[in-house]
Amino acid sequence: MTYPQAWRLPEKGWLHLFTKYTKGRELYWETSADGRAWSDDRKLAGFGGHYQVSGSFGGKIGSFFNYHPGGKVDKRTNLYYAQTEDGGATWTTVEGRPLELPLREVHNPALIIDYQAQGKLMYTCDLNFDKAGRPLLLYVASRGAEPGPENDPREFCLTSWDGRAWRTRAITPTDHNYDMGSLWVAGDEWKVLAPTLPGPQPYGGGGEMCWWSSTDQGRTWAQTKQVTR
User: Fold this and answer.
1) How far is the C-alpha of 141 from the C-alpha of 153, rounded, in Å?
2) What span, in angstroms and rounded, lies between the C-alpha atoms of 173 and 31?
3) Where are the alpha helices (DSSP H) in the chain?
4) Which stretch of DSSP H or E encloses residue 127?
5) Which of 41, 74, 155, 226 could bond to 145 as cystine, CB 3.0-4.6 Å?
6) CB atoms within 10 A of CB 120
7) Torsion, CA 172, CA 174, CA 179, CA 185, rounded to 10
8) What is the mean pLDDT of each run of 10 residues along the chain (229 residues)?
9) Distance CA 152, CA 150 (A)
10) Given this model, what pLDDT does residue 10 score?
11) How far, in whole angstroms, is CA 114 from its chain's centroid?
């Protein structure tokens, strides 16, 4: 069991998302009323391997994840999203379409963006929700696994659900696939804190931390502060 992500559900107990190394890194969940006695493990997705990031809004838990073609993490790609609003009893797409679990095929109803067809990789960062409870997915999109300028452009991207469709927009370039950003929502302002300026070792992981802000539902972004130097 790796990458534990436990969420407290009001009046229902706990839902715990995690990874098991079964046939690659596969996604599972379990539930508990009291945090002591747990249900059996149940598989959410298993086709090649996955990295996921989850988040909660009220009684809703969402997960977005990629997949690893042939089990190779250096080829991680595609963007998937699934959610549950009943403590894991059922999982659906963002529109509420029930998912037949476990997900076993690359092309399934949870697929949002086929980055594999675009020749791009996807590195998960953070999941949050807007003030209406609609999911916001933050990640780095890249042209290749190897560090260095040959795989530019790498970009922090936000894929958001507007109630009718998924919208994807780039926030800013970055210089390493493992640059990690965090997403905050304060009313109508969405903010990202991430190492988006080169640090002492350009094209290495990390960099100078910056705040980015959007007040138009992610359509445009502006750097509002450089935090480190």
Assistant:
1) 8
2) 39
3) 115-118
4) strand 121-129
5) 74
6) 19
7) -10
8) 95 95 96 96 98 97 98 98 97 98 98 98 98 98 96 97 98 97 97 96 94 98 97
9) 6
10) 86
11) 15
Query: Are the C-beta atoms of residues 80 and 49 closer than 8 Å to each other?
Result: no
Structure tokens at 2: 């790796």
Token output for 165 = 């469709």
Taking the CA atoms of 50, 55, 56 and 57 in sequence, report the sign of the dihedral they define.
negative
Beta bridge partners of 124: 139
What are the tokens at 113? Answer: 């963006």
What was the pLDDT predicted at 191? 98
* Residue 40 DSSP one-character state: P
What span, in angstroms and rounded, lies between the C-alpha atoms of 129 and 168? 15
Query: How far is residue 216's CA from residue 121's CA, in Å, rounded to a whole number?
Result: 27
For residue 199, what is the DSSP state? -
* pLDDT in the model for residue 11: 85
Confidence at residue 108, expressed as pLDDT on a 0 to 100 scale: 98
Dihedral pair phi/psi, residue 3, rounded to 5°: 50, 55
Helices and strands (H and E) in the chain: how many: 1, 16
**Percentages (nearest 5) of helix, strand, coil residues in the chain:** 5, 50, 40
